[in-house]
Structure formats: C-alpha cells, structure tokens
C-alpha cells in the first residue's frame, strides 16, 4: 500500500493545508477535498495531475488564475504562465525533493 500527499502552500512554500490519501486515489479527488478550504490567492500552481477542466473552472469562479499545464495527450492546448510554473518549485521543496 502506498500513499499520496496533497498540499497547499503559500508563496514561500510554507504548508497551509495537507491531505494524505491512499495511493490509488486520483489527484482530482485530492484536489476536490482541498478546494473547499483554499485560502484567498491570486493563482494556484499545480502539476499535470491537477489538470482537470472542472478544477480550472472552480478556480476561475474563486477569482484565482490556474497555473497548471495540460496533460500531454490533451487535444486542446491549455495556456498557463510557464515562467511562474518553472520558478523554483516551492511545493516540491516543501516535500523535500
């Protein structure tokens, strides 16, 4: 059995919310659980595992800009701020990678 860790951090990489889920649980499910308690922010960065259209729409509804690249096999290209996404990934640093 393995686990997945989902986290919301601030701009400095400090943990705000944290969720541990079973390894077979999709990233969508983790995002849905954390979405209810997101703090006010201008944007949300996430990896391709969080590239669901419903999540992008929910973030826009909350006046947040999604900075999430689309999945590689996606038919329609998704725009995101590549410069911000490539900045030192503070979330990965928070996990100690």
UniProtKB/TrEMBL annotation:
<dbReference type="GO" id="GO:0003677">
    <property type="term" value="F:DNA binding"/>
</dbReference>
<dbReference type="GO" id="GO:0004803">
    <property type="term" value="F:transposase activity"/>
</dbReference>
<feature type="domain" description="Transposase IS4-like">
    <location>
        <begin position="3"/>
        <end position="89"/>
    </location>
</feature>
<protein>
    <submittedName>
        <fullName>Transposase, IS4 family</fullName>
    </submittedName>
</protein>
<dbReference type="GO" id="GO:0006313">
    <property type="term" value="P:DNA transposition"/>
</dbReference>
<dbReference type="Pfam" id="PF01609">
    <property type="entry name" value="DDE_Tnp_1"/>
</dbReference>
<dbReference type="InterPro" id="IPR002559">
    <property type="entry name" value="Transposase_11"/>
</dbReference>
